[in-house]
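Minutes, structural biology subgroup

Action item carried over from last meeting: produce the C-alpha cell record for Amidophosphoribosyltransferase (Pseudonocardia acidicola). EB confirmed the sequence was re-checked against the source entry. Recorded below for completeness.
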Amino acid sequence: MEEAPREECGVFGVWAPGEDVAKLTYYGLYALQHRGQEAAGIAVSDGRRMVVFKDLGLVSQVFDEQTLSSLRGHLAVGHTRYSTTGSTTWENAQPTFRTTATGSGIALGHNGNLVNTAELRDEVNARAANGNGNGNGTRAGARAQATTDSDLICELLAANAADTGVEEAAMRLLPRVRGAFSLVFADEETLYAARDPKGVRPLVLGRLDRGWVVASETAALDIVGASVVREVEPGELLAIDADGLRSSRFAAPDPKGCVFEYVYLARPDTTISGRSVHATRVEIGRRLAQEHPVEADLVIPVPESGTPAAIGYAQGSGIPYGQGLVKNAYVGRTFIQPSQTIRQLGIRLKLNPLRDVIRGKRLVVVDDSIVRGNTQRALVRMLREAGALEVHVRIASPPVRWPCFYGIDFATRAELVAGSLDSEGVRRSIGADSLGYVSLGGLVAASEQPRSRLCAACFDGEYPIPLPEEARLGKHLLEELSGDALPARPAAEEPVPDVSGAASGDAGPLSVGYGAADALRRP
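Output recorded by EB:
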C-alpha cells in the first residue's frame, strides 16, 4: 500500500568548536527524518581524524547515547536516507567516506539525484584503469562497495583533493556534475556545502552562537537553536573553518526549485524561499475550493499531509472542517515484511474511520497527491463502508503524470494513474463521486514564487535539466553497470503501453521512473 511519493534524503552539517556537534547533528537529523527512513549516519572530525558511524534504520534506531558520546569533534556531517540511486544496503548508507592519497578523509552527504551518473562512473573507472585513483587501491574494473551517485562524487573529490585541496577540487568537479544536488561534506578541518545551479533541492544556512549549521530545511535549524541566515544559493559552494565562512560560485544560478516540496516533501513548519510551507498548503486548499466547489457536509483530511489543505478548503468553501480519519502514528517503514493476511488489511493499518463522524455525511476528502491511486481507492471504499453518503476527493496538487529524475522516488509513467487516464477516468478508478485537482497555476500562485523559478516536471513533463537516454537512468543503474545481480522479478503479464499509448513490449520514452527502473517488471 506504499502510495505516497517517496521522500529523498536529508542533509545536515555543523561547524561549532566547543559544542557537542554529534548530538546537534542527531537532533538535526531527527527533524529531517521525514525525508528518508532507510538509513542514517553521522561523520565527526576533531581536526586530526574523522569517524563515521552509519547503519540501516531510523535515526533513533541507529544512534544511542553511548554511540553519540564517542563521536567527539568540532564539525560533523549527517544524513538520513531514502534510496534514490542504489539499493538499501549498509554500504549505500551515508555519509559516504573516502581517504585521499595524502591520508586525509572526506565524508559526504547528498540530497537529490544526478542525471550523468553513468558518465561519472565511466570517469572513475577510467582513472582507476590509468592508475589515477584516490589512493584507496581502486583497480581497473573493480566494483565499488557503494552503488550511489553520491559515492561517485566523493570518489572524484578525493581523487583530486590530494593535488589541489578539497575546496579547489570541488570547484573543478561540481561544474561537471549534472542533476539535482544539495551536498554537505567535510574534511578534518573544514565543512562544505554546495547546491546545484538549478537549486532543485533545498539547502539553508544557519548561525549558532559558536558556529554555523547547514541543513535541508529550516525546521532542522529551529530544533538545534540556530537562527536562519539565508538559503545556500544555486551554484554556490560554502566553506566554513577557523577563518570563517567563504562563498564561491562554481556556476551561474538558474533557480528551478521543486514545487513538490510545498505540496508534500517539506515539513509544514519549514520555510522555503521566504514562504511558509504550512501557509502555502492552506492557500492551496482555499484555491482548490474555488476551483472545485461541491455541496457537502464535512471536509476531512487524509492525515497528516492533507491537513493544511483541508483547513484551507474548509475556509474557502464554508463547509465545516472535521477529523474523520485516525492515523496510527506508529505505522511507518519497517524492515519486517507483513504476512499476506496482514498485507490485505492495507490502508487500515494506517487509517481508521471515525464512524460516528462519517455516518450519513457528504464528505470532501482532501489529500496531497494521487500517484497510483491505490490508497484513494481503498480509502473511498472504507469511507462508504463507514456510512458516508457521498465521497468527493480533492487533491492539493495537479495530476502527477511524469516521473521525477531529480530526487523524488515516484513510480514509472506506466504506473502513474494520471499518466494514462484523464480526471474522469481517475475518478471512476478510485470510485469517488467527484474528483478535483488544484490547477498548476493555483499551486504556483499559492507558493508565491515566480513560475520561472520552479520545477514542475512531474506535472507538466518539462524537465529543466536535460536527461540522458533511458538506458543511463534508473535507481539501480550502478548495480547494473557493475554486473551486480538484482532480485529476480516476475515478468509483466501484459505489454506496457508507451507514452503515446501504443502497446509495446518495451518501455516507451521516459517510462523508466526515477528510482523505479525495475517497476515495469514488477507484478
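Discussion: The first helix runs from residue 21 to 31.
Next step: EB to file the record with the rest of the batch.
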